[in-house]
């Protein structure tokens, strides 16, 4: 299977590259931009095009959201012209106001923000005009490297001693980029083998949590690992933010349909964070002894 991945450097694309490296049946082609032409698709002949998510669309300039949507629109037109399957990953923030109960796949987001509504309109066009599509809604992605990686930047801030401010009253399900990459490759292989389970799916980690609790757990686990190596780091403090004074906003994705259709299980985010922290410590290597360094 040959997959064309857009937006080189995105943390999900790096995770997909790691998955493909471990398999002999998956080839990746990574393009730097966000859009692709029909001529390019005819030249490369991929089995699917994957667009990684725009992380935190509520927290960035509307112009960036609109530009992302224009790229997706261009890609959709090219995929329609060449009958190429399209996979579009989107942020759970499109459910702007959240829901009290876990959000099922059939629930179409209805955000108030104008730029976010443009993305919903693109999703409507994909569903109505391109049968071979996957719209994959994700919880907040985390990884050690790549753009939109979250965990890598969080570790850097903590190690630098910088304060980390995180919302205490927004509840979501952090999602490992590695877990999403493995799921997407497995889903696309099943579809290539004759499954007709195209459509919208939710992928997220288990255990709803606030950004504040997530960051606090990362800080505790990081300190534990470093102290186990004999270090006494002065990690930055995690400070809570409150955006919703009446009650927490819950943005929890129900991932039952992806399990039923493809056998994809949610990965516990705590286990994934622990694994990544172990990898970070191993890659960092031993810290030189200050006394020996000065002698």
UniProtKB/TrEMBL annotation:
Which intervals of the chain form a coiled coil? none
Q: Name one Pfam family in it.
A: RmlD_sub_bind
Q: For the RmlD-like substrate binding domain, which residue ranges apply?
A: 66-279
- Name-wise, this protein is dTDP-4-dehydrorhamnose reductase
């Amino acid at each position: 299977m040959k997959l064309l991945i857009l937006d080189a450097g995105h943390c999900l694309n790096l995770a997909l590259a790691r998955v493909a490296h471990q398999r002999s049946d998956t080839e990746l082609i990574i393009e730097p931009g966000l859009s692709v032409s029909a001529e390019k698709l005819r030249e490369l002949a991929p089995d699917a095009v994957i667009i990684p998510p725009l992380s935190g669309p509520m927290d960035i300039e509307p112009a960036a959201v609109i530009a992302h949507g224009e790229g997706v629109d261009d890609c959709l037109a090219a995929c329609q012209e060449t009958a190429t399957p399209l996979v579009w990953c989107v942020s759970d923030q499109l459910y702007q106001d959240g829901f009290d109960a876990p959000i099922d796949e059939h629930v179409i987001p209805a955000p108030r923000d104008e730029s976010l509504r443009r993305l919903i309109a693109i999703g409507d066009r994909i569903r109505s005009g391109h049968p071979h599509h996957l719209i994959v809604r994700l919880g907040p992605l985390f990884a050690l490297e790549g753009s939109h990686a979250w965990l890598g930047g969080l570790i850097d801030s903590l190690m630098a001693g910088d304060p980390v401010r995180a919302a205490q009253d927004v509840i979501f399900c952090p999602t490992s980029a590695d877990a999403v990459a493995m799921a997407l490759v497995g889903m696309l292989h099943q579809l290539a083998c004759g499954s007709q389970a195209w459509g919208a799916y939710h992928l997220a980690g288990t255990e709803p949590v606030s950004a504040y609790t997530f960051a606090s757990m990362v800080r505790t686990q990081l300190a534990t690992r470093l102290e186990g190596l004999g270090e006494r780091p002065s990690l930055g403090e995690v400070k809570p933010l409150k955006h919703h004074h009446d009650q927490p906003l819950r943005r929890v994705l129900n991932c039952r349909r992806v399990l039923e259709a493809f056998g994809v299980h949610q990965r516990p985010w705590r286990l994934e964070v622990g694994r990544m922290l172990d990898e970070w410590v191993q890659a960092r290597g031993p810290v030189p002894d200050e006394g020996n360094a000065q002698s």
